[in-house]
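Q: C-alpha cells for this one, please.
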Amino acid sequence: MQLVLNTPGAYLRIRDGCFHIKVEDESKLLSPKKVESILISSAVKLSSAALQMAVEHNIDVVFLDKHGNPFGRLWHAKLGSTTRIRRGQLVASTSAEGLAYALRWVQQKLENQIEFLTTLANKRPGKQEQLGVYISQIQVIRDKLTDFDIKSMNAADALRGLEGTAGRIYFEALSFIQPEQFPFQGRSRQPAKDEFNCILNYCYGVLYGLVERACMLSGLEPYLGFFHADNYNKKSLVFDLIEPYRIWAEETTVYLFSQRQVKKELFDKIQNGLTLNKEGKQVVIAAFNERLDTAIRHKGRNITRRNIIQFDCQTFAQELLKIDLEREPETE
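A: Here is the predicted structure, written as C-alpha cells:
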C-alpha cells in the first residue's frame, strides 16, 4: 500500500517494529511489510529510525511539492542490480533501437487514448458524433506510426510531432466533455490554471514517482532516455516510460468530474492559478490509489495497475540485458 502523509504536523516514527503514524488525535501502527511507498506532501515530522526502516524494507520515500511533483526521495545507497542493464541502456540510446522502444510506448499511449475516448463516447450519446471526429483524427496518427521509419532522418522529431498533435486533439476532446462549471481549455502546469489541470498534474506527479521507483528497482538509469530530450537533471527515461500509464491519471481526473466528486472548495487560489488544498489532495489520492490498486488483465495475468509498472520495467530491463555490448556502433 501507499502511505500518504499530507497533514501538517503529522508524525511518523517506529513503535514495536511498525511504522507509528500520528495525525492530529488519531494514531495507528502499520507493518513495513504492507507499505510499498510513503508520499509526503506537507510539513510532517519524521524520525531517522522510521526512515532507516523504510530504506531497509525497500520502501520508496517520496517528497512532493504543492503541485504533486516529486522534488526529493530517499533511496538506499546500493545499486540493487547489475550494471550491465545500464550499459545495455546506453548502447540502445545511441542507436535506432532506443527510438524503437519509444515508438512502442507512444503507440500504446495513442491506443489508450482511442480506447478511453471510445468509452466516453459510448456513454454520451449527445456528444458521440463530435467525439467520433476526435477519435478518427487520433486513429489517423496511430496508423501513420504503424509504418513509421525509425531510421529516417529526423525520425525522433517527427515522432514527437505526431505524438504532440495526437495529444492536442486528445485534450481537446476531454475539454469538450468537461462540465460547464469546470472548463478546461488546455494543459497548464506550475501553476495549473483550472481545476482539471490541478487534479491531472497531481496524479501525473504521483505517477512519475512510481515510474522512477520502478526504474530504480529494475536497474534502469532514470536519466538516460531515448525519446525525450536530455537536459540537466531531467529524468528522460521516466518521461519516456510513463507514456503508456498516463491514461490512469487521465481516467481518474475525468471520472472525478463526471461523478461529481469535484467541488470548488477542494482548491485554493494562488498567484496565477489554483492548487489542491488538503481536502482536495485527499479526494484525489484516494481515487487515484483505488485505480492503481485495481487489478486488470495484462499480458496474460491479473495484476494491479501499480504493479504493472514494475512488471513492465523489469521486462524491459531483461530486454536490455540481451543487447550485444560489443557490437559496432550504427552509422548515419
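A few notes: Residues 96-122 form the longest helix (27 residues). The two ends are 48 Å apart (CA to CA).
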